[in-house]
Structure formats: structure tokens, C-alpha cells
Amino acid sequence: MNQEKEEELFCKRLIELSQQAYVRGICVYSSFLNLNELNLFYKTINTISPVSYQLFGGYKEAERRVICFYDDDSFPNVSFPIVCVSITPHSVKYSEALIHRDYLGAILNLGIERTKIGDILAQEKKAYVFCYKEIASFICESLERVKHTNVQAKIVDFDESDYKIETKVMSGTVSSVRLDSLLSITFKASRSSLSGLIEGGKVFVNGKLILSNSFVPKEDDIISVRGLGRFVFKRVETQTKKNRYRIIVEKYI
To answer: How do the domains of the chain map onto residue ranges?
Structure first.
């Protein structure tokens, strides 16, 4: 099946989910959506049934997110079926240095579909996995090893877990607050060398695909660049005497 056909079927599925929520008056949830799928959702918004929707991935900065379609009158407070699972080594002393790919591979090897798994925050000697509630217990019972490290997994409350996004505040001056200028400051490269990423469909702002180098992000927009990472455009701090703008970004590391 070609990509265009797959995208068409995906959009039809979203429309069906919204129709279920509208006709039956219930909350209906999607799977975890990646950036491309979120972009397709934003393109499909105008064709979905007249219901409300919310997106959530387990924490504010989540990249992979679940959509909930619902009726305002029936469900003023939406409860997403997402939980957080912590994965820690049995022995910190003998554990390996594990990265995102290691944790994801170990979980998928259990036979779990990628669409049931959200973001994985890999930190030093531990990881937090956001996933559908229905598979969380299975992960906790079945996941015994990541690469060569014996691990234990357990469900933790969002408020009780100590996961955090590590960021680095960066600044620089630009002639205009364009998307390519922000990328240049964040990733320490020339605008010309990064413009191909935008034109090549690798840059997303709040989950929406942006193809214009001159796009002007708003404060607190989350910008994701495939292969390079993510950052938040925080603000324009000052304007210099030469009419350049000093901007602040916060890069995920």
C-alpha cells in the first residue's frame, strides 16, 4: 500500500472515531499518534463530526499523543487511558548505559504494537514509558531485561514520578523571527544548510508540518525537527540598535 493510500485510510479512521463520539455520546480515543499523523489530524479537523477534542501524551511536552473525541455536555472532564511505567535496573552498579532505542526495542519484542506506546523518556539508569493503561500491567509482568540489563517495571503516578525533561536555554540574534532563523540558532548551523529540512517535510510546529522557511512561530511553540531534536521558542528578549532580535529558545537534550 502506498503512502497516499495509507494517509487517506488514516484520515477516514479519525473521521469514524469522531462520528462514534458524536452518535453515541461517548469519549472515543485514538492510538498514540506520531508527528506525521498529528499533522494529518490537523488537516482533517474541518471534516470531523461536530464534537470537541483534546490531545494528551502523558505530560505537557509529549511528542506522541492520543486524541480524545467527546461531547462537551457529557464529558466536561476527559480522563485519558494513559499511564506512566518506570523501568529501573535490578542492580544500578551492573547496569548498562541504555538509550531510548534499547527500551523501545525491548518493549516491542514483547509483541506490543507501537501505537500503544507514547514517548519514552530515557534518563540515567532509568526510563519512563507512557503507554495505554490496558497494556501497562503486561509490561510490568513481562519486561525482565533491556539488552543485557535485568530490569523491573512498575506503574507510577504522574505526580509521584520524578521524570523531567532536561533542557538547555540558548540565545542568539536574528534579523527576523523566522523558522529557519530559529533552527539556525538552536542547532548551530547556517540557515541555508537547514532550509532543506523545512522544505523536505522534516519540521513540525506543535505537531503541524511546516514547509515555509519564512513561517513565524509564536512564543511557547514546540518545534520538532526529525533527526535533530526539539526545542521551544520562548520569546524575543530585546531588539538591538541594528534592528536585530535577540531570541531565547529552550532545547530538549
So the answer is: 3-70, 82-156, 167-252
